[in-house]
TrEMBL record:
Top-level taxon of origin: Bacteria
InterPro entries the UniProt entry points to: SpoIIAA-like, SpoIIAA-like_sf, STAS_dom_sf
Pfam families hit by this protein: SpoIIAA-like (PF11964)
Organism encoding this protein: Bremerella volcania
Signal peptide range: none
Protein name, entry field: STAS/SEC14 domain-containing protein
Length: 120
């Protein structure tokens, strides 16, 4: 299965584009970038964009849980962009695990998502 993770940072906004299935190793790239951004800006914003996304491996789910607990108050906005109903459901499921203002966007609304994540 093809898999890719791409992280773009502009100011206090991190856009994470994911294709395939996230693994524990992907968090080795994601966590340091997030920690550095939080150190620089305090509170940050994340736009998580999924293309042909197949979820998380068991190891990645554990890393994601630790990530959420560590950064519970550091993320002020979390935008999730997806292509399927289960990805929308995942966004609803994540709400109790963050203080972030969250919003789900269909993949066709990527421009709207990018505008929302950056506006004050």
């Amino acid at each position: 299965m093809y898999k890719e993770i791409d992280i773009t940072i502009v100011g206090k906004v991190m856009e994470v584009d994911v294709t395939g299935k996230l693994t524990k190793e992907d968090y080795g790239q994601l966590v340091p970038a997030t920690d550095k951004l939080i150190k620089e800006h305090g509170k940050i914003r994340i736009l998580f964009v999924m293309h042909d996304f197949h979820g998380w491996s068991a190891g990645a789910m554990w890393e994601d849980t630790k990530f959420g607990l560590k950064h519970f108050t550091h993320i002020e906005r979390l935008g999730i962009v997806g292509e399927t109903k289960w990805e929308h459901g995942m966004a609803v499921f994540c709400r109790p695990f963050t203080m972030a203002k969250m919003h789900y966007f269909d993949a066709s609304k990527i421009d709207e998502a990018r505008k929302w994540i950056t506006e004050d």
